[in-house]
Amino acid sequence: MTSGFVDEYKIIAPAISTAGVYYFTTDCGVNYEVRFGRRQDNILHATIVFGVTNDEYEGEEYTLTNKG
Prior knowledge:
Order of helices and strands: EEEH
Distance between the termini: 12 Å
Radius of gyration: 14 Å
Number of helices: 1
Strand content: 35-45%
Largest sheet: 3 strands, antiparallel
Shape: globular
């Protein structure tokens, strides 16, 4: 990584573009699932949820799994 720049990861888009679930894998081998959602009463209110999908981290807090 060059100083001042953020690493980029290859994003795996959903098969159906409106599904709103994306995946990427970090250089450390951590698999992430990213979900985008909107509230029914306010479509401008977006929620983004990151989740680690590796089995080895099941039930652990994010601070313990944040390897990059």
